[in-house]
Amino acid sequence: MKYFKVWFTIFSAFYTLNTFAQGVLDGGDDQYKPRVGQEGKDVVWVPTTNELLAIMLKTAKVNSNDLVYDLGSGDGRIAIAAAKDFGARAVGIEFNPAMAELAQRNVNRSGVGDRVKIINGDIFVEDFSKASVVTMYLLPELNIALRPTILKMKPGTRVTSHAFNMGDWDADIEIDSPAKAYYWVVPAQVQGEWLISGMEPSRTILKLSQYFQKIGGSIQIGNDSQPLLNPKLDGSTLSFTYLDRDKSSHFVMLTVDNNEIKGIYKSRSYNDNKITGKRL
Ligand SMILES: C[S@@+](CC[C@H](N)C(=O)[O-])C[C@H]1O[C@@H](n2cnc3c(N)ncnc32)[C@H](O)[C@@H]1O
Fold first, then answer.
1. Which atom of ligand 1 is nearest to the CA of 53?
2. Are 126 and 119 in contact (CB under 8 A)?
3. Where is the domain boundary, 185, 213, 241?
């Protein structure tokens, strides 16, 4: 923690010099002027530049169907941009009461008060499970502490973090410019064995291994087991190809819903066949 405070202090000094020139630090008002690098409960305040936050929200494909939560929302700029520029609803959670009040005034001044709410609270206490998109600019150990909660969110929830990754949960996309940021999609829990119906006359078992969004496995049709080729998991959408005994290629795409799975496979005649399955 100490190391990152030092890191943040150095970064903040650089950032202050750099961004004053760009005029992007106009987050304060006549009632409260936050200072870049000022103490926060678990992490100091350093705002994300408007350029980077726009790229983060664009990468997450934020749109009018989304509910965006910014964890540790500072002056509210990410929540405001999500509503104003991407049409989403947004909630910012900020521990510092003066900062939360400033953010709420910024929300009102931006004319998005009907779609953005600032909660003065702790990200480790407040419930953000309804978010379809989570944004954050925290610290590596805070990302890791939040990771189990994030992984329990609805599969397909998009997450983007300025500067810091999620340890061994590799990002789906890395943003390198104008600064480092990461993007993930919360994967469904698919590990285990699934009994598939509608695919082949013989009993079909799909066996899946999983490490976050990375999956592997095999498909057993009767006594014949084939490895999954190019297996992918994107939220709750699972896809792969396999070769049957005659070396014909079949493409399978399935949607996972807890213990049930359904979708299509393309047979040799390239027709879409409906298939269903359940966890064994
Ligand atoms: C690095 S700043 C990021 C601000 C904003 N998300 C952005 O990117 O511009 C982190 C913010 O988190 C707030 N914070 C620190 N610990 C917190 C906690 N436990 N709960 C809520 N907010 C917290 C700080 O006060 C600060 O405003």
1. 8
2. yes
3. 185
Residues 206-214 have a mean pLDDT of: 98
Residues constituting the chain: 280
**pLDDT one-digit tens code per residue, 161-173:** 999 999 999 999 9
Provide the domain limits for residue 267. 192-279
Query: Which residue, of 167, 185, 203, is where some domain finishes?
Result: 185
Identify the residue whose C-alpha is closest to ligand 1 atom 2.
Answer: 45
Q: Is residue 151 part of a domain?
A: yes
Q: Kindly state the average pLDDT of the residues 97-113.
A: 98
Instruction: Locate 216 and state its tokens.
Output: 């592997």
| 131 closest CA partner among 153, 147, 146, 112 | 153
Residue in this structure with the two tokens 């095999």, named with its chain if needed:
218
Compute the half-sphere exposure of residue 234: CA atoms within 13 Å on the CB side of its CA.
9
What CATH number is attached to the domain comprising 260?
2.40.128
Q: Return d(Cα 56, Cα 60) in angstroms, integer.
A: 6
Number of domains in the chain: 2
71 Cα: distance to centroid of ligand 1 (angstroms): 7
d(CA 16, CA 46): 9
Among 50, 69, 94, 136, the mutation site with the greatest number of ligand 1 atoms within 8 A of its Cβ is: 94
d(CA 2, ligand 1 centre) in Å: 17
Residue 22, φ and ψ in degrees, nearest 5: -80, -15
Ligand 1 pocket check for 69: Cβ under 6 Å: no
Unique residue bearing structure tokens 């490490």: 211
Q: How far apart are CA 190 and CA 233, in angstroms?
A: 9
pLDDT band, very low/low/confident/very high, at 22 (cuts 50, 70, 90): very low
Average pLDDT, the chain: 91
Q: Which amino acid is at 262?
A: K
Which helix H or strand E contains 91, and what residues bound it? strand 89-94
Q: How far is the CA of 239 from the centre of ligand 1 (A)?
A: 37
